[in-house]
Amino acid sequence: MDNKHIEETYQLLIELIQNKCINPPGDEMKSIRTIEKFLKSKRVSCKIFESAKNRANLVAVIPGTNKEDSGLIFGPSHVDVVPVTKPDDWKENPFGGVIKDGYIWGRGTLDMLFIVASQVQAFVLLSQEKFKPKGDLVLFIVADEETGGVWGADWMIKNHSNELSINNRKMFAVTEAGGVQISKDKFVIINGEKGATSLKLKFQGTPGHGSAPYSSDNAVHKVSKAALYLTDYCDNKIPIDTTFIRNLVKGLGMNFILRSLITNKKLLPIILKILNKKDPEMPKVLHSLSRMTISPNIIQGGKKINIIASEASLEIDVRTLPGQDYDYVVFHVKKALKELADEVIIKRVEAEEGIASTGTASPVESDFVTAMKNAIRKDFPNASLVPLIASGATDGRFLREKNVDTYGFALFNPETPMNEIVSLAHGVDERISLKTVELSLNVYYNLAKEFL
Asked: Domains (ranges, CATH) in the chain?
């Protein structure tokens, strides 16, 4: 890629960082206008869709030459970022967009402004060279991913799906945030994600004096017991599904014996305990990929220290595999609670308090997956892909629900360790390597050429 185009991508990313589209409240219109200005300077037309005050989404299209052929969406790619809680802990201004030590520093660089800038520039280059895709090529930039997508991808799909070409042809999409090298020449693609359900479990007790606790009906006791029951059930009793582990270990090229051990439902709990003594991170991944997880995270109860608690609550974060619905969640939560199941009151936490979503997944093998592999091979000739479902929610779920095969796909500098990426996203000193921006620009450009 020409140095001029790479430098332009860096500068676009820096301006997006400096716009400070912190969500809440979002104010994404600033970055949407920045992208509009960049596109217009390159004589590329686009449309802006205002979903709320100072909040907007952007779409640009290079029409396909054949109405029957599949198309490609760059996105949904979000311009909102999470807040910075401790700016004084940062080595650089979180919203300065400083280039230092081979990185661009700033909030949102990893999640996911580098992808936004790379996709915008790739789209511009294809447009300028009069690229004639077989199917539509769509640039889809959105607001509000960090608080659930209500004013971003979800709003656009509900109100302007025709602009995305998803109603009249088969479409594929690339969004955050695959492309990390997990082992030599093996790059992760995110082919799906777990669902998220937030629940509040309420328990009642009988008030009494704290000086006489013997045999008391204490709601705090119940909540404490519930937290232990749920944790034990998640680790040892909940049904195991090794489908997504099987996809992962196959992509990693593990030998048959090791693959058989890890994907055996009966042996997996033992394998996790063995692995946990050597490398705690890997069993966390395998555990998450193999089941619905339940994490008890907030306990509240009691009104006064000398009064036995008459009411207490436990808030839990439940992450479901694709295909596991709300009824499945409630069934297993009650089963885990044993004798407490008859008295628990279960309330679903609404979206404004916590993101609610269902698990979704796209195929791990297809012509499009092959095109992604070939696009990476332009830079890494021996590359292969490792499919993985993400434990957190992204905007990709909205497109998968509309039968759009959607993947987390970029191309990170192979020298960037995965644990660095995990720790920096939403963290202190968030930054992205200049090489990653360059490689991602290349891979999006090459993907469009390869697939369309």
From this structure: 3-177+361-451 (3.40.630.10), 195-348 (3.30.70.360)
